[in-house]
């Protein structure tokens, strides 16, 4: 079963790439461009077939990626100025549409997946609850609680990660108030309500960094030694509410917009220093997808929705080698009505691609080392 989930995770990651590149391919063909190759994966083709339109489709051995090779887009490629099917010779609006089609298709895929999820499983209720993820073996909670338990109240005080009024209960504050004593927890386990009593334990939290001890976004009582339950990580749990077809469609369309806004809000927090940036490569993303598959189809579908939006956002950044970098040059051409120097553009994209490849290799090596 583990091998199957790993295979499913790789296929899920491959789906993101196929969807992205298919967007480029379809719009390029609609705009009259000649697509010479569509590759799923990198490296020499293992399986190949050529379509009637002349495109070579191939599956390559390195699964984490793919590309569409459009005539005239390759680095340092000589293009006949009279070749109407070459990318550089098409109108600027068609080139913009072709480049934007990749991220745009990822956005569209997120909407479709969201509609399927919301229509079949409902939408998430506004209220969020604390769910147990991991437990410290040296605490009493390890004997009384289980991963997946939902915490509803502590000593009759309701607990919410996000309550009906939008407010959050700080668990560390609630526990610190108890001190050396018994925490009577109302929980939901496998859909059944129950009550457990957990003894708190003092923790000096010597492992906290200086930055964590002085983080202004965390309540003062939570930054140092305190009485704890021994819950090491949290799941954010919620209930799902059945909705009609049109309501599901509305939520699906709103999903990529809300996720994009949330993403940039997170970037602002990273810049402000209130959150840590975390970079994941192919190995990390495959691991996430594998874990999501193990948790069930709803979690897996939610992750694929999220990854489609994130892939679209990342590709739209105006950085050399990315779709956003090409769109920046096309925007310059659209405004000035003249093309950027082809040699300059080629050099910029070449350097950008090399940097991205180096970063990808470094992140992948780091992730592989962490596994052993």
Short description:
The chain is an alpha+beta fold and 372 residues long. It has helices at 2-30, 92-121, 141-144, 171-178, 210-213, 245-272, 282-295, 297-316, 323-336, 342-370; strands spanning 35-42, 47-50, 56-59, 62-70, 123-124, 129-135, 150-154, 157-158, 182-189, 192-199, 201-203, 226-228, 231-237, 240-241. The longest helix is centred in the first third of the chain and has 30 residues, at 92-121.
Fold blueprint:
Layout: H1 2-30, E1 35-42, E2 47-50, E3 56-59, E4 62-70, H2 92-121, E5 123-124, E6 129-135, H3 141-144, E7 150-154, E8 157-158, H4 171-178, E9 182-189, E10 192-199, E11 201-203, H5 210-213, E12 226-228, E13 231-237, E14 240-241, H6 245-272, H7 282-295, H8 297-316, H9 323-336, H10 342-370
Parallel strand pairs: 1-3
Antiparallel strand pairs: 1-4, 2-3, 5-14, 6-7, 6-13, 7-8, 7-9, 9-10, 11-12
Helix pairs in contact: 1-2, 1-7, 1-8, 2-6, 2-8, 2-9, 6-8, 7-8
């Amino acid at each position: 079963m583990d091998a199957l989930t790993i295979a499913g995770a790789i296929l899920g990651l491959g789906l993101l790439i196929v969807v992205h590149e298919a967007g480029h391919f379809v719009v390029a063909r609609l705009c009259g461009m000649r697509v010479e190759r569509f590759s799923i994966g990198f490296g020499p083709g293992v399986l190949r077939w050529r379509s009637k339109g002349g495109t070579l489709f191939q599956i390559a051995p390195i699964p984490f990626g793919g590309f569409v090779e459009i005539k005239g887009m390759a680095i340092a490629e000589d293009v006949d100025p009279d070749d109407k099917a070459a990318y550089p010779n098409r109108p600027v609006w068609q080139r913009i549409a072709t480049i934007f089609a990749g991220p745009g298709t990822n956005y569209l895929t997120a909407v479709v997946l969201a509609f399927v999820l919301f229509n079949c499983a409902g939408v998430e209720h506004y209220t969020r609850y604390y769910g147990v993820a991991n437990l410290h073996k040296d605490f009493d909670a390890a004997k009384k609680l289980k991963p997946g338990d939902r915490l509803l109240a502590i000593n009759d005080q309701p607990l919410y990660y996000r309550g009906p009024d939008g407010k959050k209960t700080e668990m560390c504050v609630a526990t610190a108030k108890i001190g050396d004593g018994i925490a009577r927890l109302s929980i939901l386990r496998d859909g059944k309500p129950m009550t457990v009593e957990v003894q708190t334990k003092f923790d000096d939290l010597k492992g906290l960094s200086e930055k964590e001890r002085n983080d202004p976004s965390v309540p003062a009582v939570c930054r140092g030694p305190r009485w704890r339950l021994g819950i090491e990580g949290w799941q954010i749990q919620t209930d799902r509410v059945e909705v009609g077809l049109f309501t599901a469609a509305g939520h699906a369309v709103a999903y990529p917009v809300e996720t994009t806004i949330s993403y940039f809000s997170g970037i602002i927090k990273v810049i402000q220093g209130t959150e840590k940036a975390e970079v994941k490569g192919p190995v990390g993303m495959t691991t996430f997808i594998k874990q999501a598959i193990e948790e069930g189809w709803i979690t897996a579908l939610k992750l694929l929705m999220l990854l489609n939006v994130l892939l679209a956002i990342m590709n739209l950044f105006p950085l050399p080698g990315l779709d956003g970098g090409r769109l920046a040059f096309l925007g310059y051409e659209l405004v000035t009505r003249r093309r950027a120097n082809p040699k300059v553009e080629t050099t910029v994209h070449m350097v950008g691609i090399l940097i991205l490849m180096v970063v990808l290799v470094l992140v992948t090596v780091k992730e592989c080392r962490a596994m052993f």
